[in-house]
Amino acid sequence: MIKNLRKWLDQREPDFQPGGKYEKYFSLYEMVDTLLYSPPNRTTSSPHVRDALDLKRVMGYVWLATFPVMFMACYNTGLQANLALQSMGLEQAEGWRGSIQSLFGFDPNSFFDNFFHGLLYFLPIYMTTFIVGGAAEVVFALVRGHEVNEGFFVTSILYTLTLPPGTPLWMVAMGILFGVVIGKEVFGGTGKNFINPALAGRAFLFFAYPAYMSGDTVWVAVDGHSGATALSTGAASGMAGIYESGLTWWDAFIGLEPGSIGETSALAIFIGGAFLLYTGIASWRIVSGVLFGMIMTTILLNTIGSDTNPMFAMPWWWHLVLGGFAFGMMFMATDPVTAAHTNAGRWWFGVLIGFMVIIIRVVNPAFPEGMMLAILFGNMFAPLIDYIVMKVNIQRRLKRQKSSSVEVKA
Q1: pLDDT at 365
Q2: What sign does the CA torsion over 344, 345, 349, 352 have?
Q3: What predicted TM-score, i.e. pTM, was given to this entire model?
Q4: pLDDT score at 128
Q5: How far apart are CA 348 and CA 301, in angstroms?
Q6: Which DSSP letter does residue 20 get?
Q7: Helix 55-65 to helix 151-161 angle, to the nearest 10 degrees?
Q8: Which residues contact 407 (CB under 8 A, 6 or more apart)?
Q9: How far apart are CA 166 and CA 132, in angstroms?
Q10: For 322-364, how does the pLDDT look when each residue is reduced to its tens digit (9 = 90+)?
């Protein structure tokens, strides 16, 4: 069957080549062909560096790394919804999701009830993102006459995981369109964008529709239920408020708390992130820099203290597991296109993000999250960081060369 499919694709190829009757749809043919099989193009002369890890495999690895996060996203979304229904005395959720989930149940103590209920929120958001954003990618590929890049597989899942579970699907579509078109395609497509397209779409929704992206009513997928995130509770009442809410550090680490679909479980995020670090796709320098910047800034603010702002007292190990910090550090900040490219620059890029997220979380009482804006801020400064690093290296080499010339003359 595989051989027959390969033969059938080869027979169709002339129709999509220049002069063929489907010439203008070559991008679609190429997308299907390279999705099913490795690209046939090979270098034949030197000098070239050959590596089995091509772009398709890199994007596939990142997508696979999100599987633990997707799993916990479905379970925790359903768990929070079922707990909310139980606390409100409701037997089932409203709408079509409630009708389907009634086949399983709404017991928060049942793994399957929680997982499948969460799946009913995750899948529509992901499919909307994939279809709308993928269509935009294909349109730009057809107009420009270039191939459809695999990068959207990663953009679509990362964008989905950053959204609140009850985000309206029309809003999901608008956000991913903004991220793909304005965040990437207007700059030339994958590899030429300077900001993360998934975060660009998420930021657009946050500023365009703040009532759907923030507050206490958007983090649990049950209408009429109000549940603040731990960061919101910390901003209002400090660590005492978090402890009084019943949330433990271990619960936050596992991800058993309200929040965006895929940003609550630091455990699942670190499992996927460890895979990316092991394969070399994610830069350990960026991850270390973000962590170092966050810890040092937190310790500094803990030392300074504040009588009016309780967030000054939050320790770094709580910042690590709350909000989108872990997800941003492992999956967003390490984007190889929008991050710094020099080794020294990656350290400074990471430190800048770690510093900015704590400053936004602690000093700005109106915005208790901060990771999204910190990474976008770092994306804008990444080219400047690389430029400074290269200039410093050039000056150092020139100085060393002059010193060597003086020694030779002497």
Answers
A1: 67
A2: positive
A3: 0.87
A4: 96
A5: 20
A6: S
A7: 20
A8: none
A9: 18
A10: 999 999 999 999 998 899 999 999 999 999 999 999 999 999 8
Of 239, 271, 276, nearest to 255 by C-alpha is: 271
147 in Cβ contact with 141 (< 8 Å): yes
pLDDT number for residue 187: 83
* Residue 103, token pair as written in the block: 């086949």
Which two three-digit tokens encode residue 260?
């965006």
CA distances from 189 to 165, 192, 194, 195, 285 (A): 29, 6, 10, 12, 26
CA distance 297 to 182: 33
- Residue-wise DSSP of 147-213: PPPTHHHHHHHHHHHTS-TT--HHHHHHHHHIIIIITTGGGTSTTT-SS-HHHHHHHHHHHH-HHHH
Query: Which residue's structure tokens are 């080794």?
Result: 343
The single residue listed with the structure tokens 């490219």 is 341
Q: Are 183 and 380 in contact (CB under 8 A)?
A: no
CA dist 301 to 205, 291, 313, 316, 338, Å? 31, 15, 7, 10, 29
Residue 147 DSSP symbol: P
Buried b (16+ CB within 10 A) or exposed e, 61-99: bbbebbebbbbbbbbbbbbbbbbbbeeeeeeebeeebbe
- 318: which residues sit within 8 A by CB, 6+ positions away? 234, 239, 242, 249, 252
Place of tokens 């058993």: 256
Q: How many CA atoms lie within 13 A of 262 on its CB side?
A: 29
